[in-house]
Amino acid sequence: MSKKPYDPATEGAEMRFDGRMSYTDYLGLDAILNAQKPLSQAHDEMLFIIQHQTSELWMRLALHEIGAARERLGRGELRPAFKMLTRVARIFEQLNNAWDVLRTMTPSEYTRFRDDLGQSSGFQSWQYRLIEYAVGNRNLAMLRPHAHRADLTAALEAELARPSLYDVAIGCLKRAGFDIPAEVTDRDLRTPWTPHPAVQQAWLAVYAAPETHWELYELAEKLVDFEDYFRRWRFNHVTTVERVIGFKRGTGGTAGVQYLRRMLEVELFPELWHLRTEL
């Protein structure tokens, strides 16, 4: 005797959504799932598009969390900021995992649609640039790929006018009584961060006595945890690009793998890494 199929309605599940908000409505899935517009007949172009679209969604969340963490740190509310910074690190863990999916695409498969990309490239991701600016890697030359969009340029310029996440973290050191000179706190926010011995000495003191400076110690480790995943993301990017296109130039005109390898040398929070040698 066949068993009667389970009906969720018998336990109160909503089954009719005429004129009511459904899951698809709330998430805007019609727009999201119709945003993939392959330009070729190549099977793997869908993978390429979805990989990058989902990465941009994760980056949007990362920006949301970084912005909120920065505000909390600026108000001296370190513990709520820790939760947000932990989430940012986990977001970059997801971004790292996504490279494993993209690496299932072989060079032969990519060449079938690469020309259809034109000059578009991940190098032009304004959200990625905004993340770099928000955490402290401020390279003004990287404004130029977005100059054709006044709205994007305005968003990036607005970010450059704010203290970065690292600037705010250093502000926490100063509020705690560490001697952070005016040349650090009053510097031009648009300029790239330059490691400063006074900042390194302050962080070194935190690490030398974590029980005395526990919240600052935890803040430092949250920043290092994030940069650890961020560095892995860059490394996975390099490895994936080399695996798929070798040493060809990027679609956006960069030197491809050679350009990405140079990015591996960038340190977001240099004093937090350098102090480890002195401990």
Summary, kept brief:
The protein is mostly helical and 279 residues long. It has helices at 23-27, 29-33, 45-74, 78-102, 107-111, 126-135, 150-160, 165-175, 182-185, 197-208, 214-245, 257-263, 270-278.
Describe what this molecule looks like in 3D:
- The chain has 279 residues and is mainly α.
- The chain has a domain at 42-120 and 163-278: Up-down Bundle (Methane Monooxygenase Hydroxylase, Chain G, domain 1).
- The protein contains 13 helices and no strands.
- It has helices at 23-27, 29-33, 45-74, 78-102, 107-111, 126-135, 150-160, 165-175, 182-185, 197-208, 214-245, 257-263, 270-278.
- Helix 3 (45-74) runs parallel beside helix 6 (126-135) and helix 3 (45-74) packs parallel to helix 8 (165-175).
- The termini are far apart.
- The relative contact order is 0.11.
What is the secondary structure topology, with strand pairs?
Blueprint (H helix, E strand, L loop, with lengths): L22 H5 L1 H5 L11 H30 L3 H25 L4 H5 L14 H10 L14 H11 L4 H11 L6 H4 L11 H12 L5 H32 L11 H7 L6 H9 L1
Helix pairs in contact: 3-4, 3-6, 3-8, 4-11, 6-7, 8-11, 10-13, 11-12
Task: Just name the CATH architecture of one domain.
Answer: Up-down Bundle
* Mean pLDDT level: 91
- Taken in chain order, the helices and strands follow as HHHHHHHHHHHHH
Shape assignment: globular
Strand content: under 5%
Low-confidence stretches: none
In terms of structural class, how would the helical and strand content be classed?
mainly alpha
* Spatial extent as radius of gyration: 23 Å
How can the largest sheet be summarized? none
Q: Would you state the CATH class of one domain?
A: Mainly Alpha
In CATH terms, what is the fold-level topology of one domain? Methane Monooxygenase Hydroxylase, Chain G, domain 1
Terminal CA distance: 73 Å
Structure annotation, total helices? 13
Tell me the number of strands. Answer: 0
How much helical structure, as a percent, in the residues?
55-70%
